[in-house]
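Backbone geometry tokens:
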Amino acid sequence: MRVLMNGPSPSPLGRTILRFFYLYFFLHWGTGLLMFWDKLGFTAASVARYYRGDPDLFMNPRSFSGLLEVTHFHLFAMGLFFVVFCHLLLFTPLRPALKSALTWLLGGAILADLSSGYLVRYLAAEWAWLKLGAFWLLQGVSLILFALLLLTMTKKNPHR
């Protein structure tokens, strides 16, 4: 409980734990980028095709149960990701307005990313632009957070 109130420990073990967390996050970030490219592609047409199917390519549309299953697991994982990153952000020397903006951007990007697949599948293919925008916003904000947290960790006293 003390760590939740006082922030990550400046001890060598605490810094080692953070280094591994950042390493795993960076690997997760990179593999997520590769998986999105491999499965959905980086165009609105390819994203729409992934969710809505394409008879010419013998691709079935995503089923509701398939979308729900992916959403179920991502809600937990992304919620945990949000809490960890925003918690670490609280202990940085950044201005409160910047912390708040990054928190809202990250939360909004996660919600848009999780919901946009349903919009593409069940409302219109044009929502693929939201899926692409949410993905790139999520990737960008999380990379900015990663960089800021890494820079903060390298300072002598990150709790100033």
